[in-house]
Amino acid sequence: MFRHYQEGRIDLPEDGALFLQQLRTTNRVVLEKFGNSMKTHHTYKWSKREGMEEGSTIQSLIEQGIERPKLSNDVIGALFKVLYSE
Q1: How far apart are CA 23 and CA 5, in angstroms?
Q2: 3-state secondary structure of 41
Q3: Percent of the chain, pLDDT > 70?
Q4: N or C: which end of the chain has fewer CB within 10 A?
Q5: Does residue 20 contact residue 31 with C-beta atoms inside 8 Å?
């Protein structure tokens, strides 16, 4: 399981959630076409109760970051890992 939080990093959850909203809006067509085929390769644990299972779609990853702004920066990190691996 991966946890991206590291002490000393700046965390801007509102900006992270806004970035994810813009990403979703700007790339709506691409996400509709390829979003279900791109999946996470790891299980991510954001907190004791929240996380993302291996094999989840990037669309669900983006939605979780938008719905839970506190997690948005960790979600962005996980999203980039998925995109770089494709």
Answers
A1: 22
A2: coil
A3: 88
A4: N
A5: no
